[in-house]
């Protein structure tokens, strides 16, 4: 999914002001009562502002072409509207596109600071940060009972949940079978080890003679980090210790993982390692410009739309390593504490967390449900056979979200992005880059 963390002056300077402002707003709201939702019997219908779309998420709804896909997409909106009407007759739900990842995060930060945030929003990796600033409302415990623990780890702060996971994901290896055939390789035998993957990528690049290449390697921003993390974890590495309190950027495992990915990037289409446009990058696999890429379950529908004969398999594993992964594409929905429509916002979250909604979403988008009962529905695998690969990965690989840094998060991330890009896009030695990032991050956490 499209993810990046571009440095932002605004984000690096408003945190203290935000905390004071939110505390004041919270106190003011509490003095007036916890909810100003309209009563069906006494007030006009309300308008609930939602930043995000509960239907097909990524790459975009613009990829819908068939009447069947459009109907499935629309049915999700219709379902939510119908469920909301049961408690809030006449309600209007205003869905607003405010981007994803850093763009969305910055828009939320500014809106909360200004005192005019949406009622509900979604995000992926910044819920604990906003919860720490008292910007989010706690979610009732029974809303999360049926949600898988892994995706919900990113919704927690100090033992409490501040969001629900509407859909989740994990990474697999996507491979273009036509490109493998052109290079004389068996399209039904994707690589299982790092050595096999690198060897195949080199052979494909040589056979392609500039027309097609071995692998795309996403290197920039958050999207790059998500796709690097599984390979560090396969060797026992990570960005922090398990409790997220200490930085481990320069661990031997991380050095080895980035060294491998650097070699793999030499088989990538010319200039592609510097791309921060995920659509352009992965369409190189979809359109036969490259054979391999690291892909989430949203690529099932995306590659089909692009008419790619793409296969999916577990990520290759290094010698002496173990299978491991990262929670990704984890759409977390939350209610902003400054919202005047707390009850309606929470009802929206209850619907998003439900088995019924998540089954509809999965069938329409080929995405993985976070709701346990929806994920166990055999009809989903029957309708979307490729999901079986991702379900197998979930069952056999340890995975968790990316860490949340206890202090100066945006600046710490900036230090890591600089390191990963200087190695995978530039020519700076891996050890030197990670050591420099480690030193910077440690100073930021003091």
From TrEMBL:
Keywords: Signal, Transport. Pfam families: SBP_bac_1. It comes from the Bacteria. Gene3D superfamilies: Periplasmic binding protein-like II (3.40.190.10). Residues 1-23 form the signal peptide. PANTHER family: MALTOSE-BINDING PERIPLASMIC PROTEIN (PTHR30061), MALTOSE_MALTODEXTRIN-BINDING PERIPLASMIC PROTEIN (PTHR30061:SF50). Belongs to the bacterial solute-binding protein 1 family. This is Extracellular solute-binding protein. It comes from Cohnella soli.
